[in-house]
Design brief:
Two copies of one chain form a homodimer. With about 250 residues, the first copy, chain A, is α+β, with helices and mostly antiparallel strands. The first copy, chain A, contains six helices and twelve strands. In chain A, a hairpin with a 4-residue loop joins strand 5 and strand 6.
């Protein structure tokens, strides 16, 4: 019977600038009696990666531009937050209500460029890591340094979506697994050739992990065990749909 | 330690028109020594629900309209398939390449109105259930009839998305759980009031189950155990974002 286990790493502790998230994961697993193996996927909340990489900003130290102040008034948002969002954005996709949907410099389309004031301390906001794939590779290497095993790593964040209510967690950085499972051209058990069978498994793994992580439970690291993954370096960029091919937006 | 287990129900067997998917689930669980409990979520692939409800159509028995023939030529698609897609659609959202993105009568925005020729037998296509919430409720009641326990039920399908490559499984029907987890207004551990914390947990559970289900492994029923859910009747319609509030499309 195919079986997946998904469990949180308890007692992770606070992460600060310069910390090695990978070493912290290895050590927390030891404390919890978790023996990581090379087939595991370690899902790490973006927030702690951003903290380790010094991507937190105090809002009272930001000087908003005239445009940020104008947008802040229009959207009833803190102009300092708007300034941070703009600094992270390639373009604004849509704005309205109190929301800004942008394309980030990484190519992610999400609310507020992923800039987020939750779980970071009052008066602060965290930006996404500059290069989340590189962050994932670093975490993976640091786990391996301590544990000699290199599980795959996914850095996750909660993204809103077109057409549907609510966020689901997706992979913003990956290391050690192919983020999509492409079965196009293979046949189902009736002999029908599959045409649309490309599953975004890194996103599905991130979503599965979110069910354990939660939004405020302080479980920023979750192990997904038993998942069939294709091992390769991988990149979350494989999950970005080129605009010309996107009929869903 | 918070822990989720996700496992498939092996040896499910073929589903035909008139079959009770709920009874089949109860019986297959018995054969596999799986004791369902009221806190489990049973995720059921839409395809077997459609089969049980007689939603399969032989393409050679469909008479395509002139418009379906024209679209078929334009998109290099079987006009009979296009006819079925149109019959399931409220409106065409986009078309191009070989794809049609539509809004179904249920309100789902997805490729081909969910009409799909995989895993149903050659020359056939399955439509989505007419009322997937009602289908989920029926499955739940039929499981309870056999097992005296009523786990929550999610009917899942693989949907493409705006902005991102690949499909993820989402909930098209639910029974026995609140499909979203709304934590807006609660505070994180720093005292910050969460503003955007609405998680589409039914979609995340469906995505998690897909990791076990796969596209062609013949594992159409997956149990998700250990998930914190809010028990109520629920409806997948809660996951449909009203157009006026949708900045992501």
């Amino acid at each position: 019977m195919k079986r997946l286990e998904i469990f949180g790493v308890d007692g992770f502790g606070e992460v600060g600038p310069g910390d090695s998230v990978g070493h912290m994961i290895a050590d927390a697993c030891s404390r919890n009696g978790i023996v990581l193996n090379a087939d595991d996927v370690v899902v790490v909340a973006q927030k702690i990666v951003s903290k380790a990489e010094g991507m937190l900003h105090r809002l009272d130290r930001i000087t908003p531009s005239a445009y940020a102040r104008q947008l802040g008034r229009e959207l009833d948002k803190d102009p300092a937050l708007v300034e941070l969002i703009l600094s992270e954005s390639k373009r604004i996709v849509r704005k309205g209500g109190r929301a800004m949907i942008v394309e980030t410099h990484h190519g992610f389309v999400c609310a507020n460029a992923g800039v987020d004031s939750s779980n970071v301390g009052l008066g602060q906001a965290a930006l996404l890591p500059k290069d989340p794939d590189a962050s994932a590779r670093k975490i993976r290497a640091d786990i391996q340094e301590r544990r000699s095993q290199a599980p795959a790593v996914i850095i996750s964040d909660s993204f809103g979506r077109a057409w549907r209510v609510g966020t689901v967690d997706v992979a913003v950085g990956v290391a050690g697994l192919k983020p999509i499972k492409d079965e196009r051209g293979t046949k189902d058990r009736y002999g029908y050739e599959l045409k649309a069978a490309v599953a975004a498994i890194a996103d599905e793994i991130a979503s599965a992990a979110e069910l354990v992580m939660g939004k405020k439970d302080g479980v920023p690291v979750v192990i997904v065990r038993g998942c069939e993954i294709e091992k390769e370096e991988g990149s979350a960029k494989e999950l970005l749909r080129p605009e010309a091919e996107d009929l869903f937006r």
